[in-house]
Amino acid sequence: MAGALILVVEDNEKNRKLVRDVLKHKGYDVIESETGEDGVRLARERRPRLILLDIQLPGIDGIEALRRLRADETTRAIPVIAVTASALDRDRQKIMAAGFDGYQEKPLNVKAFMAAVEAVFGR
Fold it and tell me: What is the CA radius of gyration of the chain?
């Protein structure tokens, strides 16, 4: 869904740039945040169509940010994909049990990443 607004919450500048560049190349509009708190605030204000949320963030982590998004009527239904370097099976199970709509490992496989993004819009 080209033109859709996507919020990227990622504290690592290089990772954020990669995600931003890939999404913009595919025609998406992107807003960015470096912290969980700011990401939750931006989601409430801008209501993106998708949130890509790192798990390990300064301040509140991605799981707490997701909890806050799901507790808020204005952001509850926004799909959220975890983007994380936590690749252990138990970490993935914990992340998915928290209620994320998807999971992408870092470093990103761009093809798999875009397939996951596009699958959200295909629902």
Answer: 13
What CA–CA distance (Å, rounded) separates 95 from 84? 10
What would the mean pLDDT of 18-43 be, rounded to a whole number? 97
Whole domain around residue 26: which residue ranges? 5-122
Taking the C-alpha atoms of residue 112 and residue 105, their distance in angstroms, rounded to an integer, is 10
Q: What is the pTM of this model?
A: 0.95
**String of b and e for 9-30 (b: at least 16 CB within 10 Å)?**
bbeeeebbebbbebbeeeebeb
Give the CATH number for residue 69. 3.40.50.2300
**Could you tell me the two tokens for 103?**
């999971």
Residue 80 near residue 101 (C-beta atoms within 8 A): yes
Per-residue model confidence (pLDDT) at position 123 = 62
Backbone dihedral angles phi then psi of residue 105, each to the nearest 5 degrees: -85, 145
Helix spans in the chain (H): 13-25, 36-46, 62-71, 89-97, 110-122
